[in-house]
Amino acid sequence: MSGLHRVAQNVHEVNQAVAPDDPDLVVAAEGVDVVREGKHLLRDISWRVELDERWVVLGPNGAGKTTLLHLAAGRAHPTKGAVYVLGERIGRVDMHELRTRIGLSTAALAERVPPGELVRDVVVTASWSVVGRFNESYDPMDEARAAELLDEWGMAGLAQRQYGTLSEGERKRTQIARALMTDPELLLLDEPAAGLDLGGREDLVARLSELAADPDAPALVLVTHHVEEIPPSFTHALLLREGGIVAAGPIPETITSDNLSATFGLALEVTSVEGRFTARAR
Ligand SMILES: Nc1ncnc2c1ncn2[C@@H]1O[C@H](COP(=O)(O)OP(=O)(O)OP(=O)(O)O)[C@@H](O)[C@H]1O
């Protein structure tokens, strides 16, 4: 096949791959490469997320998980292929408008929160897509929504505390409440359990599982290194290694010893009990 034909076919496949009238399709990536400074961060990624799906993205350090999350958030552009998020093609739309429809929680965003910011304000400022309260005035409905989310995430008693005084678990819950502030259609969480102790991790996994089981919750994508952090109500998994997909699909078929061994490059034995997974070297 000539190069021109191949390009034409790619364009055709991308257009075919995305049904703009499918309201349930939240993320659609087809044949996506991301290249930065001559390095392939992602290679030939084709992935679809539907509204009622809850995805976990697993892989070792440097596999490209955060890059994939940034694509889904519209904060990175593909070098090749096309990414559609909430029906809009990344790179062809006003990203500011799209971003209010996407909740994102990452360590990089969390680091931008001023330590003196009140917990209540960390959450409510998401309605203006800003970090750090300045002179904006907030609708009482926004204030009420922030209070409701803090309550749901077990932070009601700490709403008046300074963010910098919170424990890591409390910070993580505040960040998720903030990411939910705009009632997003897509919620993206990058390693929400990183740095938590066992009790904190179990508490967060249970809360995320409850969120995932809610039919009114947004589509969810959670990035992690550890199968132990997969909330039981999550439905799908995508395994990444060196920028490429090792396996993707429903969790029971995807989180297997063979797939996980290929993803992490070592022989692993995966076991599951009541929807919770553990992995150990064979
Ligand atoms: N702008 C860039 N230029 C060159 N390389 C980059 C750039 N951004 C990221 N990388 C590299 O791309 C690879 C994938 O990064 P990414 O952060 O997506 O991985 P990750 O799976 O989230 O890793 P971790 O689990 O360690 O957070 C890493 O090797 C990283 O160093």
From TrEMBL:
* Keywords from the named record: ATP-binding, Nucleotide-binding
- A GO MF term: ATP binding
- Looking at the UniProt entry, the stretches that span the membrane are none
* Database matches in PANTHER family: SKFA PEPTIDE EXPORT ATP-BINDING PROTEIN SKFE
One Pfam entry name: ABC_tran
UniProt KW Transcription keyword: no
Q: Enumerate the spans annotated as ABC transporter domain.
A: 27-267
Name of the featured protein? Putative ABC transporter, ATP-binding protein
